[in-house]
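Final report, section 2: Outcomes. Of the targets proposed, N-acetyltransferase is the one most frequently requested by collaborating groups, and we therefore present its record in full.
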Amino acid sequence: MTDWTHARSERLRLDRPVAGDLADLHRIHADPDSWTHFPQGRHVDLARTQQTLDRSDVEWGRGLGYWCARESDGGPVVGMAGCAVVDDAPWWNLYYRFDSSVRGRGYALEAALRALDAAHDVDPDRPVMAYLLEVNVASRRTAEKAGMSLVWSGPDAGNDDPDAVRLVYLDREPDDAIRTALDDRFRVDPTV
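The predicted structure is given below as tokens.
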């Protein structure tokens, strides 16, 4: 198994977050532009971003977590992306969020592809899931271009928008155990 704490893609440096990344991560996660499709997820205070950073240690303790993404020439953190096991789920969660100043450059796809490589290396039997809102077309395109397939859709329980629909993409066809876990996690019948 490869050590994935530091990885590279064509245009990105991907590194395990450290305490010094807090301000950059907060800037990205506090930006309302980053949460257009899910405003309630926005980090309104530094403590929320610190929790994300603290959780990173737990995730990396399982072999893999979300990276801080920088452009290959260095500089500030421009995004957070990668795969992590969240809440002991039986799948990797694929995550990508980038600063609005660099969106549209394909960085999310570049990081997602590298994250899939890492997840398949660390635990190839654990599927990779992308969990996103139906209205977030850019995120859907990223998941689809990364080779993931839609396996579940339904109401987004707990969302402030009662009409919100969640989509779940996986990197493989779900087996019965994963289908049951999806049904249990989202507490609605799959429509796909």
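Strands lie at 6-8, 12-15, 66-71, 79-84, 92-98, 128-133, 149-155, 165-170.
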